[in-house]
Write a structure and sequence with these properties.
Elements: E1 2-6, H1 10-22, E2 29-33, H2 36-46, E3 50-53, H3 62-71, E4 78-82, H4 87-96, E5 100-103, H5 108-121
Helix pairs in contact: 2-3
């Protein structure tokens, strides 16, 4: 299984990778992108099984990336790992097609709870 991690912070991408491992998802191939534009290209070139994206990024936000993917017909499973946890943001993410929102700060247990069902179904 291939997981794309999209975040403009290299350190945050590393924290997501570490948390994935701590949550028991170490066996997956991980691909990284630094913003939504790079994320779109990575979806096209790497065909990930799951996208984990930040919301606020330069070049293209995570929500714009998700909207672009859905408009192009891509149904790749997509979730947010973001500090944007307000109910209206979660609702907006779900309306756009996101499967889940994991808010920062996050835990391995939170990753297990949100990613377990998604990865089991892919």
């Amino acid at each position: 299984m291939k997981i794309l991690i999209v975040d403009d912070s290299r350190v945050m991408r590393q924290i997501v990778v570490r948390t994935l491992r701590q949550a028991g998802f170490a066996g997956h191939e991980l691909v990284e992108a630094a913003n939504g534009v790079e994320g779109l290209e990575a979806v096209r070139t790497h065909a990930p099984d799951l996208v984990l994206s930040d919301w606020n990024m330069p070049e293209m936000t995570g929500i714009d990336m998700l909207a672009t993917l859905r408009a192009s017909g891509s149904q790749v499973p997509f979730g947010f790992v973001t500090s944007e946890g307000a109910p209206e943001m979660v609702g907006r993410a779900e309306a756009a097609g996101a499967l889940f929102v994991i808010t920062k700060p996050f835990t391995p247990e939170g990753f297990q709870e949100k990613l377990g069902p998604v990865l089991a179904g892919v």
